[in-house]
Amino acid sequence: MTDVTGTTDTVAERTLGIVLVSCSAAVFALTGVLTKSIHADPLTIICWRGFVGSILISLYVLWRRHRSGGRESLRLGWRGWLLAVEGALASIAFISAFKFTFVANVTVIYATAPFVTALLAWALTREPFRMQTMLAAAVSLCGVAIMVWSSFGTGNLFGDGLALLMTIGSGLYMIMVRAFRDTPVVWAGAVSAFLLFLLGWFVTDPLAVSPRDAVLLVTFGASFALSSILWTEGARLIPAAESGLLGSAEVPFAILFAFLFLGEISPAASLVGGAIVLCAVFAHAGRDWLAARGQRTASNIS
């Protein structure tokens, strides 16, 4: 039996999809902890992350292509290269942001990406903007404003600004992914990671790191690739609304990991603003999930 999203509605596959996407969120949530634990500069981190990540993701893409009998194209074209370059720029802002502000600030600001994407899609392509999304975006904006306001005079404002820049870049990336439906997105992600490796190689000295940092850098690249692969495989098995809801779990995971591994406790204003954003994100994602679940139930009954 098949539901409205086109995924096979079996308990085993749905359970596997939930586990894979949840694990992807938990692994991706390690980004802030790993970035802050590495003493190297952001470009060196990006170089290693890109090198290890591009190799592992490329192997995954080639494996999937082999399984499909070579039907999946690896030709990027100008759209794929645009995705790769834009994704690389957003990654630079993302990794750098963690070096200049709290993990909680970066992850919570990034959690507003669905609303930023919806706003940009409306502004650029006149894609309908749902009232539900508009209300959630307004609430989350209030939360972000509280967090950013608390950063004035603390030295964290630059990091918050980078996180906002990355969130806008992520929104543009998602719009392009939807527009360039025939582009191999995962392969473009591998190329994007390799571009970061090239940038870091020519701008910094990636080999001038301590053995400790080298281990963490390889771990970082592997975790980046693993989270991407887990998400890709898991999202194939469950509805998009459910993927979005489970993906939002990255935020509390990241804040928890920052506390456990770094002993990082965010200021009260950041916690208040973060709580407001999280309420908006989970409420919005939850409504989409309930709506999709109701549609599946109605389809199965009919």
Number of strands: 0
Helical run tally: 13
Helical content (DSSP H or I, runs of 4+): over 70%
What's the N-to-C terminus distance?
A: 12 Å
Strand count, sense and barrel status of the largest sheet are: none
How much of the residues is beta strand, in percent? under 5%
Structural class: mainly alpha
**SSE string, helices as H and strands as E:** HHHHHHHHHHHHH
What's the multimeric state? single chain
Task: Using the alpha-carbon principal axes, give the shape.
Answer: globular
Radius of gyration, taken over Cα atoms and rounded to an integer in Å: 19 Å
**Could you name the ranges where pLDDT drops below 50 across 5 or more consecutive residues?**
1-8
Mean pLDDT across every amino acid position: 84
In words, what does this structure look like?
The structure is a single chain. The chain is mostly helical. Helix content is 78%, strand content 0%. The protein has 13 helices and no strands. The chain has helices at 11-28, 31-37, 42-67, 77-98, 103-110, 113-125, 131-151, 157-179, 185-203, 211-235, 240-247, 250-262, 268-301. Helix 5 (103-110) runs parallel beside helix 13. The radius of gyration is 19 Å and the shape is globular. The two termini are 12 Å apart. 45% of the residues are buried. Residues 1-8 have low confidence and may be disordered.
